[in-house]
Design goal:
The complex is a heterodimer of chains A (about 325) and B (about 260). Chain A is mainly alpha-helical. Chain A is built from 14 helices and four strands. Chain A has a single domain, classed as ABC transporter involved in vitamin B12 uptake, BtuC (Orthogonal Bundle). A six-stranded mixed sheet of chain B has the order 6-9-10-3-11-12, sandwiched between helices. A four-stranded antiparallel sheet of chain B has the order 2-1-4-5, with helices on one face. In chain B, helix 5 runs parallel beside helix 6. The chains are: A mainly alpha (about 325), B alpha/beta (about 260). The structure holds adenosine-5'-diphosphate and magnesium ion (MG).
Chain lengths: ~325, ~260
Amino acid sequence: MKNLFFKLQSYPLAWIVLVACLIALTISALSPYFLTVNNFSNLMKQVSIVAILAAGQSIVIISGGIDLSVGSVLALTAVTIGWLVQNGVSPEIATVCGVAVGTFAGFLNGVIIAKGKIPPFIATLGMLGIARGVALVITGGVSYQVLTPLFLFIGNGKLFGLPIPIYFVIVAYAATHFMLSRSKFGRHVYAIGGDESVSRLEGINVDGRKIAIYALSGFFSAVAAVVMVGRLASTPPNVAFGIELQAIAAVIIGGISFAGGRGIVLTSFVGALIMAMITNGLNILGVSSFWQQVLIGIVIIAAVWVDNIKSARRR
Amino acid sequence: MPNQTPLVRMENISKHFGGIQALTDVSVELFAGEVVGILGHNGAGKSTLIKILSGAEQADSGRIFIGGEAADIQNPNDARSYGIETIYQELALCGNLDAPSNLFMGRETESLGLLNKSYMRSETDSILAKLGIKIKSLDVEVENLSGGQRQSIAIGRAVYFQARILIMDEPTAALGMEETKLVIDLIQELKKSGIGIFWISHDIHDIYSFTDRVAILKGGRNVVTCATQACSQEEIVSMIISGIPAPSLLKDRPMAAAANTA
Ligand SMILES: Nc1ncnc2c1ncn2[C@@H]1O[C@H](COP(=O)(O)OP(=O)(O)O)[C@@H](O)[C@H]1O
Ligand SMILES: [Mg+2]
């Protein structure tokens, strides 16, 4: 039994999928509604935004950093889109501009971290305030309606029976997984997360890579914003408040090491799914949302505890 | 080897960190096919000197010549383009990556924009085989390998990328006897192929048997540079401690010693 446990540990994706299945089985044993197509589709819609953010956050965490600004950058992107649409710009162009703004905010994070030598926690904490503040300044605090066909389709449309946000998630994870495992950039992300000084001495352009990593995280926040605008059909500047903690939790629950240098991005999707299942399942079972927070907190600590067991075995 | 152009000549190198003067007017030379030991106590400036050559630090003043031509080394990639490969004290590899990833770090081969993993793996396999290095698996993270195996991978990397100048900063400090012998055997081979090697150490006993010359530093200054066999190990130890050239050297080679104490 103990051996099996350790064997599974060396296949992080199999391990976390197994955990997710056990949770799903437990909840469905308690409520038959949980495993219905309808609820599953709901769950997928709920998980999509955190999952997209968690993909970007995974890259950052594997590189040994952290991005606390993703929720605010999401809001800034959403507000940019809403404001442009409000002023008569076509939704497509507004989306492109919004994504550019979100990516630029991430790029600034990268420059501040790499060139300004400010720790990622501090730099992105600053950006958390700045991006949210700018979003409020642009709108004066009001929310714009965005009832255009493009966003209604993203929010409510289906393709081959699956909600559109799921396709965003699939593309985000496929692209990230491919990039991390097959590209030079991905290899450098792991190297920098493993040992930044060695990476530098071996001639990796660490500063350039960091700027790209945070710009990518900004880009994923902006993509999540597009899905969010579709789902809400509006752009409240306080949208996605505090969501960065959920994205980070998804990454950690999935099993990517907080110390950097290790992990597979696909586990972050499962991590996000586990959190959503707990929330959704406990809602179905009528457990109060207060208790849900307690449970998710326990799951996060348990995930890090399991990660510690793994690293203890490495030594 | 007086009439040859040195492979490396570092001339009057000075460097300070804040208020600490780490190096003052230090000069060293390295010829093809020789091993030069750089000796001194902890804090003597050995690592700083070789970091300047490998591009990890920049000198405040002084000049570097590679093959007789002035060289401009601003970063590790510049150094590599001059054929300088470095094995840093405890900073050689990323423990979380496997041997091929470490061997090709920063110089990964790609095909069609993607990592060419199978090529890098087979190249790693063949260079390690060529050097007679055995590691248990190319697919495990190198943190699972012994210190000697890790150091061998770093040496394999230098050889693979055709180092002309190899810098080793206390490469056997963390190794056992067997593993140390492995590394020394390896560099004897490299030496025969005409590579010049700087071997940094704080202990002459470790390097007396295989270095051709030693350059002794104290307090960031040259004490003396001499053929290893021109002095006994005891004399070298006392020069490391006192910073004063041994009398026997002053008698035989007034010029060399005078230049170094000036
Ligand atoms: N990055 C640095 N910052 C500040 N001081 C340094 C730095 N690197 C080296 N020094 C100082 O420079 C001097 C020479 O150090 P070093 O070259 O590492 O000596 P060695 O390798 O001979 O032990 C020491 O006094 C050391 O404290
Ligand atoms: Mg040193």
